[in-house]
Design goal:
69% helix, 384 residues, two-stranded antiparallel ribbon, 16 helices, disordered C terminus
């Protein structure tokens, strides 16, 4: 059966981008950052979200989803490990902000590294006994971990039980700039704060991707057994991926709790983990630009079409299914993943599926036919 496909317009753009000199790339980066800071403008919001507060949507869900997707991309896109319980690290960061802020009255800027560290420790605790597993088994264990964190928070008095935590302090205001006055009534400063966190996360992840760590993750994603035979300490690097992804998720949780000032276990459902996985796969697993685009669409489209009530979820799901049929590699796939898909590995390690691309399948069929012909010839010669 021939797969329906779209013409490849991303490949030529990607090739042209790779040939750009470094100064030209930095100019594009600066333009993109300036455009991101200008997004809360009312003229943009009147179209993007006519029925809701645009600056509030920019912070949550858009900004938080993008930050979470960047963190999950380290685990899924770069290391090839399917994590269905990523929301657990988001919850740990949020509850760390709530408990320390309410009990110890610490400043937000002191609690932020504490939340990141707590999520990283949780990532190591989860990864140490489970990263010997692969594929579906690892996915089930991580899903269970996410549900354990939510149910535990729902049953402990320490976390406020079903009522959660309320009265969480906002970050302290900075100077007299209106854009840096953090309070419940304004969401624009929180958007700028999460935007800075996104930029820092992008810089961190790109530096790691181009380092020895990133090369080890790529080797593990493509063929873990071969990487281990070649001397790559696969367990240690997979643990690094879990810990770094958890750090970014914990930072997102701290920001979320500081803005909402009230959190409950219902803020951290499994459905949120599935949304972030969808964002990573839809945008293009392993490519930061694609992951950001995927997270933006997953967060923004349901809000943009809120007027369609429940039908907006149906239309959104149908669009995702159609996208997976006509462009399974994602909207903006990396060149490496496109090559892996053509070879039949799926571009996500053990998650890519055992069905090869069209070219790979044709080669395999031709090889099988050749073997059958040769076997028949040998049998006929051996017959009396």
């Amino acid at each position: 059966m021939r797969r329906i496909g779209l013409p490849d317009v991303i490949g030529p753009i990607s090739d042209r981008w790779s040939r750009l000199p470094t100064p030209a790339r930095y100019v594009v980066y600066v333009i993109a950052i300036v455009a991101a800071f200008a997004l809360p403008a009312d003229s943009i919001g009147s179209f993007m979200s006519p029925q809701s507060d645009w600056s509030a949507i920019l912070f949550y869900p858009i900004g938080v989803y993008i930050l979470l997707a960047i963190g999950l991309n380290v685990v899924v896109g770069q290391a090839g490990l399917l994590d269905l319980g990523y929301v657990a690290f988001f919850a740990i960061g949020g509850y760390t902000m709530g408990k320390i802020g309410l009990s110890l009255k610490w400043d937000f800027w002191v609690i932020l590294p504490c939340g990141i560290a707590a999520a990283a420790v949780a990532g190591v605790i989860l990864g140490a006994p489970t990263l010997r597993l692969r594929g579906d088994y690892l996915a089930i264990v991580t899903l269970g971990f996410g549900e354990i964190i939510r149910i535990t928070a729902n049953n402990l008095n320490f976390t406020g039980g079903p009522r959660g935590l309320s009265g969480i302090p906002n970050p302290p205001s900075v100077g007299s700039f209106s854009a840096l006055q953090f309070n419940v009534a304004t969401t624009k400063p929180f958007y700028y704060l999460v935007l800075v966190m996104i930029i820092l996360a992008i810089v961190l992840v790109k530096r790691l991707e181009r380092s020895r760590v990133g090369r080890a993750w790529a080797a593990i994603r493509e063929d873990e057994d071969a990487a281990e035979v070649m001397g790559v300490p696969t367990f240690r690097f997979k643990l690094w991926a879990f810990a770094i992804g958890a750090c970014i998720g914990g930072a997102a949780g701290v920001l979320f709790a500081a803005q909402t000032i009230s959190i409950t276990p219902e803020d951290f459902p499994f459905l949120l983990s599935s949304y972030i996985v969808v964002a990573v796969v839809l945008g293009g697993s392993g490519n930061l630009a694609g992951v950001i685009l995927g997270a933006f669409l997953v967060a923004w489209l349901p809000e943009r079409f809120r007027g369609f009530a429940d039908y907006r979820v149906l239309a959104f799901g149908g669009a995702l299914v159609l996208m997976m049929i006509v462009r399974p590699e994602g909207l903006l796939p990396s060149r490496r993943r496109r090559a892996e898909l053509a070879e039949g590995t799926g571009g996500m390690g053990s998650l890519g599926g055992g069905v090869g691309g069209a070219q790979t399948q044709a080669v395999r069929i031709e090889a099988v036919e050749t073997d059958a012909v040769q076997t028949g010839a040998v049998e006929s010669e051996a017959a009396p």
